[in-house]
Amino acid sequence: MSIKAFELVPAIERVKLMSDKAKTQIECLDVCGKNVYIGTNDCFVVHYSIEEETNSSGRVSFKTEKQGHKFLTVKKPVVQIKTASALNRIMVLCDNTLTLLNMLDLEPIMTGAKVKGVSCFCINENPIRTNPFSVEICVALKKKTVQLYTVTEDRLMHLRDLHIPDPAVAVGIDGIHVCAGLATSYNMINSETGQDQFLFPFDAENNKPIIKRISKEEFLLSGPSALGMFVSSAGNSKRPPISWSENLLSIGYVHPYIVAMNDEFITVHSILDMQQKQAIPFQGGAALDNFDGRLFVASGREVYALVPVPFEKQIQALLADKRVTEALDLAKNANRTGMTRDKFLKMYRRIQQQAGFIQFAQKEFEQARTLFLESEIDVRELISVYPHLLPSNCNFTRSVPALHEIADVTQLVKGDNSLLADFKYFLRTYLEEIRGTKAAYGFKQEIDVALLKVYAETNSPELQTLVAVDTGCDLHDCVEWLTKYGRFHALALLYKYHGENDKALGVWTKLVDDGVKDEAFPGLIFIVEVLANLSDHELVWKYIDWVLEKDEEMGVKVLTERPANDPPSERLRPDAVIDYLHRFPSAVITYLEYLVFQRKLEKETYHTHLAVLYLDNVLRLMKKDNVKKEELDSARSKLRHMLQMSSLYRVQLILGKAKETDMHAECAILYGKLEEHDKALRILVHKLKDFGGAENYCLVNSEGKDPAYRKRLFHILLSVYLDPSYERRDTLITPAVTLLNSSVAEFDTIKVLQLLPDNWSVGLLSQFLTRAVRSSMHNSRMTRIERMMSRVENLRCKEQCIELQRDPVVVNEERLCAVCKRAFNDPTFVRYPNGVVTHVHCAKNKFICPVTGRLFSSGSGAS
């Protein structure tokens, strides 16, 4: 695919020599700065000065003036000219002789420096030696030799000879590597080792061998079948070949283009994709090359410049043809034209953005996404192609010059709703990807508003997350949009985020009351959670009545699930809340449970109130017909737990109500709270027949108290079992024996024996008596052991006392404290086992000597 990369501009329209009648033809040329040197077929070297001019429209022209000429006398064509500006010399090859001329007057050097028998030569652009006042050249002789020279102002100093299989027709050199085009092949020669490597065959008789240095240790060679072959110094190729025309005369290289000339055309190929980009008709070509970054081409009588079209124009032309890949490849290499890094990055990112919109318009969304991300595009450029998605207060204006010609996406979809959905999905995913990243910096509102509108249209579940947490959406634009699409829950969340809690709750209450509908709304529980975490207590009281009327158990959570850092308020004082909740019986019970069990407030009124409500609930259920047993059992279980757990309620009040019914278990607990254990246990044993419960009663009510108290409770229980006045006492013999044999019951054996009836056999009591005897013996033995251990300890103390008295400590006016060196004014002192005596307050640790630091065992510390 073609592109205009160069323009052919006349530089020297007609070469003037001795006269216009002279049949002079250009054979070769070289350009150095503002100097042009031309070699002709009739042995002249002509010198021109050249000035490049650019007019206001950007067109380039050249102004030239002939400076002089020199006839070399041999009447043979000048085959090659190379300038060495550092030496002020030009090297001329004519009649197989390489000579040096002065750049200014074209006179030969006085020393007569020359090399004969030369077929061609080239300059080493990557010299081995670093002398700035010399030039390294490679010379091919007619015999089978290549020579290396160092050129100075007045000498051609021979360095070495390289022997080759055949005479070289063309040569190229880079560093120590010489590429030679022979009659039948191309060869690569290492000038240091002399190693000769065959590259590939070539017929020099039918095709002109051409060698062009491309970069360090890389050459471009004219190969067979009209192919340009890239060859490295190692003999391999790192690029695919270029396919060009037959009968090439010359090639030049200026990155990223390779320019080739045959007898009819000048063709331009890109080294990036090896494709031909331009063809310029040009007949009678004589020479073409890159001279210090400028391309010049000569015909028989004229010299032209190949002026590069600015990269920006080339790239824009490619983009206009929708050739995105080529445009980006060319743009990447534009940095080699001498642009600063910042200018290049700015230019390249703009090209990426243009390319991104081209891919976007062609529905290549993945490629467009990559280009937009890499170019760090102003996200508003993308949002602006979607109608009404930018915030109304956004004063964004599209880039000038424009990045694209898209009015909006409706222009691209042409009424296709499914395609429109694809475009919006692309926008959504792109905005989601960049949200919160560097690419979104400064555009949070624009991104969030656009996402909200897209989410609202598609009823996306991400809408609630967007508006609820750290959103940039403003109310001005979004309220109307959310209302339009019926996203009322999201609307309320947005109100809440912006602090408009009253409006938010107003929307949610309408959703509960079926004023409006929104499937995303979680229901009443969500409003309860919002109110529970609301610090505006006035607003809480505005809506709590409505919530409690909808659901008491759920509504009371507004009061019981307040945050820990909730500020105190008179209206949320527990007494005020309880007074308010009297209309809601379930709610007041739940709230009192919260105060008693969760907050653990030890206030008699709360505990009594809750116990009374529990009791009233049980009584109500007992009077009610067809009540499920599970419901009644649950209510009584809560009441019993409350009565057993708390000690703050008014026991007599509850007991007075409980005694009026058959609530024997509850009465037993209440009698226990009054320390009337006999009555409690008689209820458990005589009325409830709950023998296990009676035993458990003794354990629970003696918990945390001394063993004597527990024994007293079990003796009371045993007395109830053995009460002779109970008419059915025979039925209690078994539970009495079971109690005596229980491993958890504790008794005073003598008192038990005094209580037992005389008619009970020893066999009936064998287990109890056996355990009692063992326990008595164990206690006796333990007592003896403790007594003996005490005697041992007493003996040890006596021994220590004797030891201490054996070495008396004399404390008088002359005795000083070992630590502070002061006298003892008090009869008390501290003596360490090593004899150190100190004041009491100077002895910091009785196990460590304060003077020597010696550590004593716990049994031999200071006394």
Automatic annotation (TrEMBL):
CHCR repeats lie at residues 562-726. One of its GO terms (biological process) is autophagy. It is found in: Cytoplasm. Keywords: Cytoplasm, Protein transport, Transport. GO terms for cellular component: cytoplasm; membrane. Its main location: cytoplasm. Transmembrane segments: none annotated. Pfam families: CNH, Vps39_1, zf-Vps39_C. It comes from the Eukaryota. Residues 23-295 form the CNH domain. InterPro entries: Clathrin_H-chain/VPS_repeat (IPR000547), CNH_dom (IPR001180), Vam6/VPS39/TRAP1 (IPR032914), VPS39/TGF_beta_rcpt-assoc_1 (IPR019452), VPS39/TGFA1_Znf (IPR019453). PANTHER family: CNH DOMAIN CONTAINING, TRANSFORMING GROWTH FACTOR-BETA RECEPTOR-ASSOCIATED PROTEIN 1. This is CNH domain-containing protein. The lineage of its organism: Eukaryota, Metazoa, Spiralia, Lophotrochozoa, Mollusca.
